[in-house]
Amino acid sequence: MKSRALSIGTIMLAVGISFALHSQAGQPGPTSGTITIALGSEPTTLDPQLRDEGPLRYTLNQVYESLVERDPKTMGIVPELAEKWTLIDKTTWRFHLRKGVKFHDGEPFNAETAAFAFNRAVDPKYASQYASYWVDFKEAKVVDDYTIDIITSEPVPNLLGGLYFLKMVPKKWVEANPERILREANGTGPYKLVSFAKGDKMTLTVNPQWWGDLSALPVKDVVFLFRPEDGVRLSTLKAGEADLAHNIGADLAKLAPKFVHKAALEVFLIRLNYKTNACQWLNDAEVRQALNYAIDRDGIVKSLFQGLATPAYGQPFMDAIPGFTKDLQDYPYEPAKAKEIIKRKGLDGREIELMGLEGRWVKDRELTEVLAAQLSQTGLKVKPRIIEYRTWLDNLFAVSSKEEAVRERAPCLQLTNHSNEAMDANRTLSFYVWSEGRASGRPYLAEIDDVIVANRSELDAHKRAETYRKLMKTLYDGAHAYVALFAVDAVHGLSEQLIWEPRLDDLVYVKEMRLKP
């Protein structure tokens, strides 16, 4: 494996900090050209606030926008639909909104709509999968036609990072037919939805009323093809039917006309569930440690990923995230030790499933199968179970269901690949580790949960990061919540005509692409 060092700008909280961005609205947009992108999976809904899933962001980030976005080079927060903002006090942020913006159906974007979109997203009854890291978001209030105040129940140091995920949706359009947003799209972004054929493709076309620089957009039309198999995405690219074969891995990318890769924020994890009755065998730190000892991380990286991966060092996020500690190492590969623990605990021969999927991440099926085989060397009988993406998501979130029958169907072991576009440890910890997190399979433990909750509102960035570093050691020692594996580089195949530099957060924005003349 290779190592890397990344840094991001510190979170700016001083009262009066603001930003401005000059619009280029009114410039003519492209009248021809198409960029076609082959993805491994498709969105399971068209509601941008509902589900926390990569395919939804890859596609609908072209259609919907947020109050803020990230600079593609620095990953720093910059304005989008908000022109500037000010921290009024520790729990009140004032946002001044961009004027002259319209949704694709012509509905104006203003303070009333922005407050509606915010309040809809954070309403507990709405049950957004982003709820774990919007937990201290309270409400938005209209100040005037183009100003809102966002109120939090506690200080939220990375509020701007949370708003990056919170897409603006049109108030009148949603209220007129609340179910429509599940199957139709109506944003403010540079492209608008033409059609979505499930299992096949999504087609977008330019929004001629976009507030941004239309002349900078590369093409008139965008097509997303949904092709789960890595090899099929490559074949589509080589046949000239796609310009980008997304996330196909190093071995296949070398067969593409050209390829690009980027060190990733996403960390492969095995989510451990020991909340449910069927999975109580995992409620033992030694057993969880045995799973860590059973995995040959270096061997997997060399054989499956051609060495293009970064060690996770036993942690669920990478060193770009404040709170990552350099004091930990990956659990060593000690299969004999793992086998001894499993036998001593009376688990030899126990039948277990490792849930995975195909097409969402590079080599995800193969990785699931290899992990199951290595874990089986402990004496456990681990069977890989490959399911389609929507069912996989339902199982990931089953652990937090209010219905016992749903919770009990959650798998004990589930392979996931966790991103952290918020660039904040709280996103990961409130999602996978906090006992009330949407994807957390860990029961309450004061030394972990109380720290996570208290540190959310810590405004001292250095103190906050140091607390997270100490928590990483606690999680590592007890092998709590997850088995951390590695971060695999995002490797993409490109046509000769496409010019594109992948982002650190692995998101896809067509406005950042170009086609050679």
Secondary-structure map:
Elements: E1 34-39, H1 54-60, E2 68-70, E3 77-79, E4 82-89, E5 92-97, H2 111-122, E6 137-144, E7 147-152, H3 159-163, H4 171-176, E8 191-197, E9 201-206, E10 221-226, H5 230-238, E11 244-245, H6 250-253, E12 258-262, E13 267-272, H7 285-293, H8 297-305, E14 309-311, H9 335-344, E15 351-357, H10 364-376, E16 381-387, H11 389-397, H12 404-407, E17 413-418, H13 425-433, H14 446-455, H15 461-477, E18 482-484, E19 486-488, E20 490-494, E21 498-499, E22 514-515
Parallel strand pairs: 1-10, 1-11, 15-16, 15-17
Antiparallel strand pairs: 2-3, 4-5, 5-7, 6-7, 8-9, 9-10, 11-20, 12-20, 13-17, 13-18, 14-19, 21-22
Helix pairs in contact: 7-9, 13-14, 14-15
Structural commentary:
It is built from 15 helices and 22 strands. Helices cover 26% and strands 21% of the residues. Helix 7 (285-293) runs antiparallel to helix 9 (335-344) and helix 13 packs antiparallel against helix 14. It has helices at 54-60, 111-122, 159-163, 171-176, 230-238, 250-253, 285-293, 297-305, 335-344, 364-376, 389-397, 404-407, 425-433, 446-455, 461-477; strands spanning 34-39, 68-70, 77-79, 82-89, 92-97, 137-144, 147-152, 191-197, 201-206, 221-226, 244-245, 258-262, 267-272, 309-311, 351-357, 381-387, 413-418, 482-484, 486-488, 490-494, 498-499, 514-515. Strands 8-9-10-1-11-20-12 form a seven-stranded mixed sheet. The longest helix has 17 residues, at 461-477. It is of the alpha+beta class. It has a domain at 267-488: Dipeptide-binding Protein, Domain 3 (Dipeptide-binding Protein, domain 3, Roll), CATH 3.10.105.10.
